[in-house]
Amino acid sequence: MNKKQVEKGLVDTLWGVFSSVRLSVIVLTLLAVTSIFGTVIPQNAAANLYLERYGEAAYRVLHFLDIFDMYHSWWFQFLILLLGINLVICSMDRLPSALKIVGRTQRLNPENYRRALKGETLKMEGSPAEVAEGLSLRLKAPMATFTLVEEGEGQLLFAEKGRWTRLGVYVVHGAVLLLLAGGLIGSLFGYEGYMNITEGQSDQTVILNNSNATVPLGFQIRCDDFAVSFYDTGAPKEYRSDLVVVDEGGEVLSKRIVVNDPLRYKGISFYQSNYGTVPPESASFVFTSKASGMSYPVDGNFGKPIPIPEGLGTFTPLHFINNYKFRGHAVGATVLGVLKKKGGEEVRLALPIKSPKFDRMRRGEVTVTVGEFENRYYTGLQVTKDPGVWFVYTGFIFLIVGCYITFFMSHQGFMVEVTPDTSGSAVTLYGSVNKNRLGMEMVIRRLTEKLERETRIPERQVVK
Amino acid sequence: MINSSLVLSIVTFVYGFSAVLYISAWIFARKTPAQVARYSAIAGVIGNLFGFVLRWVESYGHGYGHIPLSNLYESLVFFALTIALISIAIGLRYRNDMISTFAMPLAFIALAYASLSPSVSDKIQPLIPALKSNWLTTHVVTCFLGYAGFATAFGIGVMYLVRECLPGRKGGLISRLPEGYVLDELIQKTVMFGFLFLTVGIITGAVWANSAWGTYWSWDPKETWSLITWFVYAIMLHLRYMRGWGGAKIAVISIIGFMAVMFTYFGVNYLPGLHSYGSM
Question: CB–CB of A260 and B133 under 8 A?
Answer without folding.
Answer: yes
